[in-house]
């Protein structure tokens, strides 16, 4: 596994390391190239660190940053590459969403970089466990997509149902506890990865293309459907279904009133009692297993999970649920990095280096290969082949085989990404992962659904 | 110089106290304290005194439903682990003549428990699924026409997983108590004309009470406090008391979660207290 992890990322450095061991019988052009490569290597002291003075390199080599968060966002291979590029150690630690936010809030000093979603950033900011990120120190800030700086993209306003990253990103001062509308000098978290979630289904068992959420509650698929069992976002998937079926119109799916919650849960209980749901799932693996084992033929799902089912040899499609008027649309999510309040001195400097490294492209290229997006696609593009860029971001048919970040074949030539291009998918996000004001009530009602 | 007796006994219990006070007593006190406080909605706890959390716990239909569900799993699991556990222990003690072989078979019972709980649970999924081995056999042999859905993601699969995981907790103490039954008593009863049923009812069962009680305590407290098996094996179709309070913790609603935890603790203590009232385990073990 680690072998294949190394393959793609080493591609950029292979030439420099392989060249010196080459035979001496090379022509003049090659020789001068070698010389200049050696000169660069000598100037920076160590090969791993590029662009920092020698003293800095020695001061930071003992630093360790602990980046803590969920497994789909905090990825070991990315941390390893960062350690290699930056010259200090980055340790990635994975927890599930709930364990993560509990740790950030109750043991803030055991974390350096908290990987948070918008709603978690809001919560952690309220609890004063974070420190603001100085916007000026983020080199690529001006290249960050307007989704995050204006709350719009491609001239279209991005949905504000739920807690959009734009909404949760800014505070008025370094230690402020309340969010600020619009760009300021201080940020709560720096977005690093995001995507749009919808439904996955088995095209061999469902003969028509699915483009609407209401198919998830279609009685035809009774006993073969599943829904996500993380209350805060599961209820939004359910809301998208009921809205799609024309049963209700929500003021804000991401912040329901008590009566909206009641309606949604009562309908879920009805469906459950009628035997509609085969199961509910909480982890990525569970959703893959349900689909691959044939227990379920349609369920709310995450994009890489759909890919994982396909890798197992089962056909599976990620439904494009483009907005139709007020209905449909994807549920968006976005994870970003936040600085814990205890960071200071050299460790804080290192943390800023790390944040800047994240937006410098390698990570953007990595996550693109399993279908996630970078807030700065312009840098990610440099780390993707034209074929990969066209497939993942432009929604064009693959010209050659598409590999995942670890070198496993994902798609054959000619394949088309479900849901289309980046812009098509992102502009069709209709709500964001959230924590509702009525979270406690909602949780209680969700448990009613679970135990019914 | 003589050390006062009270001091020596404190000395003897000190290692236990050193573990129990910081890792058990203190956390429980914190949980109890938190259960009377108010949350600020952002994971903070306001140091006020309120009955609100308990009012919430006791006024909700949900609490009742959760306990019904959890107790149902507990009773079913207890029943099946008891029958199977007693059966196996009895066979090992009274039907295997060679003591060495009995010990060997007893150890064999523990072999599956060398693997992780989770692995043992998850391995039921491919077995019981719609395209699983059991359904393939049933459909293949013509017993049923369509694969049975009730085998997986149902109450059935939850109980199967529990029984598989917990039977050993019944076997061990029952085996232990049966092994101490004087075989001559059984022979005497048989000579006096007692039937097998009489021997079981009047001799074996009363003498294995302490083992049954110990095993029951293990099984009941584990099932009452579990949420993972229910979650995975019911495919999220059932909930348990702990699963519900875990949802509270996941959104930092600590005080209501603490109240639920305290109530659960009291319920489990009552259940175990009831068992201990019927059987004086200490007396029976040390006799």
Notes on the protein architecture:
The complex is a heterodimer of chains A (452) and B (287). The relative contact order of chain A is 0.15. In chain A, a hairpin with a 5-residue loop joins β16 (402-403) and β17. Chain A has three domains: 2-40, no CATH class; 56-194 and 332-387, D-Maltodextrin-Binding Protein, domain 2 (3-Layer(aba) Sandwich); 196-331 and 403-451, 3-Layer(aba) Sandwich (D-Maltodextrin-Binding Protein, domain 2), CATH 3.40.190. Chain A has helices spanning 2-10, 14-18, 28-44, 54-60, 76-86, 97-106, 118-126, 146-149, 165-168, 231-244, 258-273, 284-292, 303-311, 345-358, 362-368, 377-380, 386-392, 422-426, 439-451; strands at 64-69, 89-94, 113-117, 130-131, 133-134, 152-153, 156-157, 170-171, 186-187, 190-201, 225-228, 277-281, 298-301, 317-318, 330-340, 402-403, 409-411, 429-432. Chain A has 452 residues and is an alpha/beta fold. In chain A, α11 runs parallel beside α19 (439-451) and α12 crosses α13 (303-311). The longest helix of chain A has 17 residues, at 28-44. In chain A, the strands form four sheets. In chain A, strands 1, 2, 3, 4, 10, 11, 12, 13, 14, 15 and 18 form an eleven-stranded mixed beta sheet that branches. Chain B is globular, with a radius of gyration of 24 Å. In chain B, β1 and β2 form a beta hairpin. The model of chain B has no long low-confidence stretch (mean pLDDT 90). Chain B has a single domain (60-286), classed as MetI-like (MetI-like fold), CATH 1.10.3720.10. The longest helix of chain B is centred in the first third of the chain and has 35 residues, at 61-95. Chain B is 75% helix and 1% strand. Chain B has helices at 5-35, 52-59, 61-95, 99-110, 117-122, 124-128, 133-140, 155-179, 183-191, 196-207, 209-224, 228-233, 241-250, 254-278, 281-286; strands at 38-39, 45-46. A two-stranded antiparallel ribbon of chain B has the order 1-2. Chain B has 15 helices and two strands. With 287 residues, chain B is an all-alpha fold. The chains are: A alpha/beta (452), B mainly alpha (287). The interface between A and B is large, with 38 and 36 residues.
């Amino acid at each position: 596994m680690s072998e294949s992890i190394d393959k793609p990322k080493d591609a950029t450095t292979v030439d420099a390391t392989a060249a010196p061991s080459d035979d001496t019988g090379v022509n003049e052009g090659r020789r001068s190239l070698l010389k200049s490569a050696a000169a660069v290597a000598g100037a920076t002291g160590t090969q791993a660190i590029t662009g920092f003075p020698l003293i800095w390199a020695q001061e930071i080599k003992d630093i360790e940053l602990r980046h803590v968060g969920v497994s789909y966002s905090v990825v070991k291979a990315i941390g390893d590459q960062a350690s290699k590029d930056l010259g200090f150690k980055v340790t990635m630690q994975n927890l599930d969403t709930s364990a993560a936010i509990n740790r950030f809030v109750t043991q803030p000093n055991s974390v350096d970089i908290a990987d948070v979603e918008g709603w978690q950033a809001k919560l952690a900011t309220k609890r004063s466990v974070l420190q603001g990120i100085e916007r000026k120190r983020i080199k690529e800030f001006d290249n960050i997509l307007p989704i995050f700086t204006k709350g719009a993209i491609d001239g279209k306003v991005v949905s504000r149902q739920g807690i959009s990253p734009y909404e949760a990103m800014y505070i008025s001062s370094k230690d402020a506890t309340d969010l600020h509308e619009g760009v300021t000098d201080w940020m709560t978290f720096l977005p690093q990865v995001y995507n749009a979630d919808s439904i996955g289904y088995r095209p061999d068992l469902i003969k028509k293309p699915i483009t609407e959420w209401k198919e998830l509650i279609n009685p035809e698929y009774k006993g073969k459907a599943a829904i996500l069992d993380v209350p805060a976002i599961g209820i939004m998937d359910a809301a998208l279904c009921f809205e799609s079926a024309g049963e209700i119109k929500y003021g804000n799916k991401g912040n329901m009133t008590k009566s909206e919650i009641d309606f949604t849960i009562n309908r879920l209980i009805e469906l459950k009692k009628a035997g509609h749901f085969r199961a509910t799932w909480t982890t990525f693996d569970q959703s893959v297993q349900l689909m691959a084992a044939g227990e379920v033929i349609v369920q709310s799902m995450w994009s890489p999970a759909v890919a994982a089912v396909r890798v197992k040899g089962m056909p599976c499609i990620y439904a494009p649920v483009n907005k139709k008027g007020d209905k449909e649309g994807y549920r968006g999510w976005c994870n970003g990095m936040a600085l814990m309040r205890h960071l200071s001195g050299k460790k804080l400097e290192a943390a800023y280096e790390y944040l800047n490294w994240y937006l410098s492209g390698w990570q953007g290229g990595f996550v693109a290969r399993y279908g996630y997006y970078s807030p700065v696609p312009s840098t990610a593009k440099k780390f993707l082949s034209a074929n990969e860029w066209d497939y993942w971001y432009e929604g064009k048919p693959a010209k050659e085989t598409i590999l995942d970040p670890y070198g496993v074949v994902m798609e054959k030539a000619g394949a088309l990404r479900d849901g289309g291009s980046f812009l098509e998918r992102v502009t069709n996000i209709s709500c964001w992962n959230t924590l509702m004001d009525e979270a406690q009530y909602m949780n209680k009602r969700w448990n009613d659904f679970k135990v019914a | 110089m003589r050390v006062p007796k009270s001091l020596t006994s404190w000395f003897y219990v000190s290692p236990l106290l050193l573990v129990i006070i910081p890792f058990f007593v203190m956390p429980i006190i914190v949980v109890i304290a938190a259960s009377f406080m108010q949350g600020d909605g952002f994971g903070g706890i306001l140091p006020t005194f309120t009955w609100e959390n308990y009012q919430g716990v006791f006024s909700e239909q949900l609490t009742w439903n959760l306990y019904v569900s959890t107790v149902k799993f507990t009773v079913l699991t207890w029943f099946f682990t008891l029958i199977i556990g007693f059966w196996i222990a009895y066979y090992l003690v009274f039907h295997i003549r060679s003591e060495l072989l009995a010990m060997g078979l007893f150890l064999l019972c523990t072999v599956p428990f060398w693997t992780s709980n989770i692995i043992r649970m998850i391995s039921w999924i491919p077995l019981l699924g719609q395209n699983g081995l059991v359904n393939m056999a049933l459909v293949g042999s013509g017993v049923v026409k369509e694969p049975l859905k009730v085998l997986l993601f149902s109450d059935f699969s939850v109980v199967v997983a529990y029984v598989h995981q917990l039977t050993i907790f019944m076997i061990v103490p029952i085996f232990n108590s049966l092994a101490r039954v004087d075989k001559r008593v059984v022979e005497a009863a048989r000579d006096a004309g007692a039937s097998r049923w009489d021997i079981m009812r009047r001799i074996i069962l009363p003498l294995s009470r302490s083992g049954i009680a110990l095993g029951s305590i293990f099984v009941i407290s584990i099932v009452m406090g579990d949420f993972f098996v229910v979650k995975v094996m019911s495919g999220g179709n059932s909930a348990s008391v702990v699963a519900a309070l875990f949802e509270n913790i996941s959104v930092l609603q600590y005080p209501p979660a603490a109240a639920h935890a305290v109530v659960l603790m009291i319920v489990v203590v009552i259940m175990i207290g009831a068992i201990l009232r019927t059987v004086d385990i200490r007396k029976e073990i040390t006799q």
